[in-house]
Specification:
This protein has helices at 14-28, 31-39, 43-70, 81-107, 114-144, 151-184, 191-222. By secondary structure, it is an all-alpha fold.
């Protein structure tokens, strides 16, 4: 049976990928105001923002599902199908972690220890920067197809991926510093608070880890 030549090649999946990234970014962008409300000890606002994050995560999840469902099953795609699906999974995981932070902060009232407040903000800023750079990487990828995954477009993307790795490392260092401050207060804080804060710090760190993984998956596109 002959297969029409037009059906041998899948459509460009990158516009839908960009839409997913936008949904993920919108969800992640609610984490800073969530932490600001926590620092201000405004528990009512924490609950409001946490609910909003959950709604936005559901929208990101719907965008992920739509992209997966409409991904063509043709013989040829512009990129390896498995690599693309792994990239989609890493983007989705960023939004999942943002929602997890919101859920953790509503399981029981938490207060921010004063010695940790400024460092927590710096840590969160570093995490959010990794997410934004990951978004820039995805934006660049949409132009890689027309350039055959080479040339100046590929160079820009590689530079962003290196920047992303460096920024994730900065976030790691600030996570370690935050944890050290937290454990220095173990005689002042209840054990459950130490436990919950450890989980919150780890989930914030996971956002940065998944953002870095976005760059790693895109690097596979460039190695084709």
């Amino acid at each position: 049976m002959r297969i029409p030549i037009g059906r041998l090649f899948g459509r460009n999946p990158f516009p839908a990928l960009g839409g997913l990234m936008q949904a993920v970014q919108t969800c992640a962008d609610e984490v800073p105001p969530l932490i600001d409300a926590l620092i201000a000890d405004d528990q009512a606002q924490v609950r409001v923002i946490a609910k909003r994050i959950s709604r936005l995560e559901a929208e990101a999840d719907a965008a992920k599902t739509e992209l997966r469902d409409k991904l063509p099953g043709s013989l040829f795609l512009p990129v390896d199908r498995r690599d693309l699906l792994q990239l989609v999974g890493q983007l989705d995981a960023i939004a999942d972690c943002a929602e997890d932070v919101g859920v953790l902060l509503t399981l029981r009232p938490l207060t921010v220890p004063r010695p940790m407040a400024e460092l927590l903000r710096r840590y969160l800023d570093a995490v959010m920067l990794t997410v934004r750079i990951a978004g820039q990487v995805v934006d660049e990828v949409q132009g890689l197809l027309s350039s055959g995954f080479g040339g100046t477009s590929a160079d820009r993307t590689r530079t962003l991926i290196r920047d992303l790795g460096r920024q994730e490392h900065e976030a790691d260092k600030l996570q370690d510093q935050s944890a050290k401050v937290l454990f220095s207060l173990e005689d002042e804080l209840p054990p459950v608070a130490i436990f919950m804060w450890t989980k919150v710090l780890n989930k914030l760190g996971d956002m940065a880890n998944h953002a870095e993984n976005v760059g790693d998956r895109v690097r596979l596109f460039l190695a084709r």
